[in-house]
């Protein structure tokens, strides 16, 4: 069903070269229709959506429980997609995601989607379904949504590449994407929706990530996760990389979302449609995949190994595995009240 | 005459009854006069015409002023924050707490807001502990011990809500001093007193008690609900706390929640120490063990202490058998934003806004078009709307513009030098 295409990306000693994006991989409409028809018979979700579609036609401004605002964060990090050895390459991934976005839009007239791309050097908004822009008329039979998103994605990847070329060559094997940036932008957008009035769809965030975790982003990602927990916005994750992402597992656990690492990446659309297309209200009726175990152990600052028991500095909360005399992060000396002793000495000197 | 007098008296009695009945069945338009006082939401402009108060602009300017004062004090000196806090909340339940100037009564308002405060406190300081003390009939009693579970404190407070007798500040301070004397030296000792009375009946010399508290390094803050008192002011000045008097319910809530984030801690108050902590793993699905908190057998879903292998139900907590503090890494991570705060954004004047080179004037994070000039980040120079500015600084603690840039080590060292 999916036509073969190729996206070549060669790492040339630093600056990334992404070659042209062939149009041939785009799905022709009749095969897309077949995908959806297959799902019509098998899943309950689409039937439910059809009923709400009818209800919405009757009263256009009624926000039923199952209206959702889905913010999708797509990982376009070329360092990951060029080196991933899995059966999924970037163009196939995008085509799965596009069909999934179309599904969300068709489930309810009032559903909204926002797409944000997570690049290596920058993040940006790609698509917002609530904006009634004059969408680019599709290439022949392609619907406007597909061609618009593809065009914007291509512009984004070019911009990302240009920003990377300005900097000196990075020869990192495990380069991470800027997940904290796109999470922060998504949360700000969701706050804007909350401010817009009492009638708004229920927001959630879906992270389609493949790049490994960047340890320099730990604090920012945790800040974003706690803010999402306070605003009650679940962060779901469909991880298409090789090893599990500890940050995203924690994110889904803390915010009450779903974390899935699909075993068969060729069928990515099926995972997306059965697990992530469900709105928040209906999740209580379904058995969604639960993680086997989330590792919350901390890693010590000196060796970066995960530890069971450790020592924590009371001033700056840095974690050590062995007893030290001085904290390497904040410089405070342990066990001695230095300033106290100094002020005592001064007082005694002035008294005598 | 007599009949008419009698009728009038009867009429008055009936009117009183009718008023009580009408209280329940009052119409919405009547309630706007008595309860909501809608005329207070209007103000006059220069020509004498009435206009509704623009709440949004006031809210924004208040927020900016608060941020300016905070950044001024923190920039002035290298002050660290006290992250491990042991706070005793003292609630005054004397006769004065039954006053109705806060609707429905001062006591009810205090209880409601203390509940919200406790939840916010544990949200921002997961490693800290709270203890509750009440003053009633001139005696102070400890309602709950110092502990880290919000539900236990809230439940205990809601049960014991009755006011009577006099209030005694000295007894409360003595009790709090004894409680907080026992805690380890790395913790910051704080007391928050919610005082409604206008006097204090003490068995001894309160000035001595205040000196004792000062020596023990207790930081006492008071929020008054009636009027300013000299003894409270003296206490706060001596111990380095803050004394504020609440004007109304909204102001009281704001003052109370200001005590939730960690206060700037002077280095001499607490000794830096390495605390031994355990990071337990989750118990396997389906394993059965007797949990140490409820003393009953439970299946799965718990944590195992790494030192003594006892099962606990929730984190953070102290293992009941070996005394090890058990936390998980998100609890520590909750406090990191206090250590790495983001700088406040600078406000853009209208002229600057027009001259700016940004093509489409939209907020960088939420893409809403900027009708009024907003704020800009000093590092990444992106524009944000005022609502995003407030959200970023109060809840998110990440600048989206700075997070969406990749700074290579070379560029970072160039900007530093």
UniProtKB/TrEMBL annotation, chain A:
Cellular component, GO annotation: transcription factor TFIIH core complex; transcription factor TFIIH holo complex
Pfam families (alphabetical): Tfb4
Keyword tags: DNA damage, DNA repair, Metal-binding, Nucleus, Transcription, Transcription regulation, Zinc, Zinc-finger
Entry-linked InterPro entries: TFIIH_Tfb4/GTF2H3 (IPR004600), vWFA_dom_sf (IPR036465)
Membrane in keyword set: no
GO molecular function list: zinc ion binding
GO biological process: nucleotide-excision repair; regulation of DNA-templated transcription
Location within or outside the cell: Nucleus
Subunit structure: Component of the 7-subunit TFIIH core complex composed of XPB, XPD, TFB1/GTF2H1, GTF2H2/P44, TFB4/GTF2H3, TFB2/GTF2H4 and TFB5/GTF2H5, which is active in NER. The core complex associates with the 3-subunit CDK-activating kinase (CAK) module composed of CYCH1/cyclin H1, CDKD and MAT1/At4g30820 to form the 10-subunit holoenzyme (holo-TFIIH) active in transcription.
Family according to the record: Belongs to the TFB4 family.
Protein's job: Component of the general transcription and DNA repair factor IIH (TFIIH) core complex, which is involved in general and transcription-coupled nucleotide excision repair (NER) of damaged DNA and, when complexed to CAK, in RNA transcription by RNA polymerase II. In NER, TFIIH acts by opening DNA around the lesion to allow the excision of the damaged oligonucleotide and its replacement by a new DNA fragment. In transcription, TFIIH has an essential role in transcription initiation.
Protein name per the record: General transcription and DNA repair factor IIH subunit TFB4
From TrEMBL, chain B:
Keyword Ribonucleoprotein appears in the UniProt entry: no
Amino acid composition bias (Acidic residues), ranges on this chain: 12-25
Principal cellular location given in the protein's record: nucleus
GO cellular component terms attached to this protein's record: transcription factor TFIIH core complex; transcription factor TFIIH holo complex
Any one GO biological process: nucleotide-excision repair
Transmembrane annotation, as ranges: none
Domain C2H2-type, first and last residues per copy: 377-397
Listed GO MF terms: zinc ion binding
Ranges for region Disordered: 1-37
Subcellular location: Nucleus
Top-level lineage group: Eukaryota
Keyword annotations: DNA damage, DNA repair, Metal-binding, Nucleus, Transcription, Transcription regulation, Zinc, Zinc-finger
UniProt-listed SMART domains: C1_4, VWA
Bias (Basic and acidic residues): 1-11, 26-37
Pfam families membership: C1_4 (PF07975), Ssl1 (PF04056)
Zinc finger (C4-type): 305-322
NCBIfam families recorded: ssl1
Entry's family note: Belongs to the GTF2H2 family.
UniProt-recorded name of the protein: General transcription factor IIH subunit
